[in-house]
Amino acid sequence: MLSWVHFGDLHASPDDGYGSLNHLRAMIGQVNRHLSDRVEFAFLPGDNANNGTPEQFKRILGMTRELKLPLYAIPGDHDFEPGHLEAFNAFANAPLPMSRIVKGHRCIFLDVVSAGRGGPDFRLSAADRTWLDDQLDRSTLDRAPPVVFMHAYPGDMSDGESLAHAFARANVAIVDTGHTHYNELLNDGYVVYAATRSTGQIEEDEGQPGFSVVAVDGGAVSWKFHPLDADRPFVMITQPSDRRLYRRRFALNAAEANSQVRALVSDDGIVSVSADLNGIPIELAPHPEDKGVWHASLPATAASCGLRLTVTAATADDRIAQDSIELQSVSVVGGKPKPTGALGSDAHVVDAWPEHGILGSQLGPNKNGRPW
Fold this sequence. Notes:
Elements lengths: L1 E6 L11 H16 L6 E4 L9 H11 L6 E3 L12 H7 L5 E5 L2 E5 L16 H14 L7 E3 L10 H10 L4 E4 L6 E4 L4 E4 L14 E8 L2 E8 L7 E5 L8 H4 L2 H4 L2 E6 L4 E8 L2 E7 L6 E5 L10 E8 L4 E7 L3 H6 L37
Helix pairs in contact: 1-2
């Protein structure tokens, strides 16, 4: 299983007294204490420095040095505001595009801003597109599906439809993005696209900051937003997949995919993890190799009909956390019509899912919010 945490667009700026960095410090503290030994890395999705200045990046670096995880960052249009990425490149210290094999997954990090004219003119250079196509071809030999990190959806790009088709052909499991300022999930039937709300410019949910936890577990994609003031422990079901995040390629092995329940649980003195499958109790045990993962076999009925699965984690001092998903019926997967709308666009936005932080409001400057 590959998993990571996503800190949304920081927009670090003196305009608000660098308030987003106060949120970042608190989020890093939570991740260091409760998740750093059970996820692989942290991700910054661009629009890190609101004006792309060296001073803004210097302040971000001062915070991220405290993180006990590898950090991967990509640029957004605000990082490119000076017309170049010199300050970003000095901060990130990793030339883009870049790929890393992590837990068998090819993790591909893209720059979709510097080939454009500045502002939200998102595109890949010809050289970067050639490089990407080669990486996607190579990924067919990897033991796990690739994942992609970029600032915006393909639907926001000049050649986005071609890019989204390339992702679908390569069996990309998820494309993790920023830019929207609100939490959102798309599923075009082939690839899941995720966006996490901004850390520095938040309009939805009364300005509540937080971070998302993302996992790809045997091809199943899971995503959950963790508000900064949420109670702990944290638990997220990583297998099987929720119906909203089911992908066609994964659905080919639906019976196998629904054979286990697996959950990622934070480091909070967990003493028991149990599940309920429409009234059927299931006891989970710690996985012998995957730290923070609890697992158990699912009854065979889970592969044949759509059910609700709830996992409950309990601590020694009686604190509990729950996560619930709706299983996808195999019969529905086989007969589901092809969705309409361009691949990689928000024509494929999933239903509101408040339990996972998806409000469905599209409340941000790129849709229904105010112009920051």
